[in-house]
Amino acid sequence: MSHFKAEVIKGQGKGRGIGFATMNLELKAGQFLQLSHGVYGCKVKIMKNEDFANVNLNKLRTTNHLPDINVIQAGESRITYYGVMHYGQRETLNLPSSLEIHLLDFEDRDLYGYEVEVEVLEKIRDVKKFESVEKLKEQIEKDIELFKKSQK
From the centroid of its chain, how far is CA 57? Predict the structure, then answer.
């Protein structure tokens, strides 16, 4: 579908605040996404940087109910996770457009300044405004479950 590299930047913490921490991404200068706004399933490779140099990537693996689905590959210079990406307006939260990814079952840790490589696998749905934050949270849970099922 699409493939791009980006840097993880500090966001406003809104995703974490509703229970779905996200990596906010900034595209490289001159880079544009050839995607319509929406929610997508993706693979995310987290590239090692100097801060990551002494971290054992296997320690980032989770002990959840589906670790083999969520942590795809641990290598010398990167680790790959599945994620659900939001690209576009955030009308329910009354915020401007964003490009952010919730890594599935990722141990919450700051990745600011890390380079990630994203492979967009499938579109889950269009962006829409929800009547409440609770309804948004319910939909995010459904999006995650739908994507997990599609990857089995």
Answer: 18
Alpha carbon separation from 49 to 68, 71, 106 (Å, rounded):
24, 19, 18
Q: Cα–Cα–Cα angle for 147, 104, 20, nearest 5°?
A: 105
SS3 content of the chain, % helix, strand, coil (to 5): 25, 40, 35
Amino acid 102 reads: H
Range picked from 1-15, 45-59, 118-132 for highest mean pLDDT: 118-132
H helices of 30-132, in order, are: 67-70
Residue located via tokens 């140099």: 53
Tell me the domain boundaries of the chain.
Answer: 2-150
Supply the pTM of this predicted model. Answer: 0.81
Which CATH architecture describes the domain 2-150?
Answer: Beta Barrel (2.40)
Q: Are 88 and 37 in contact (CB under 8 A)?
A: yes
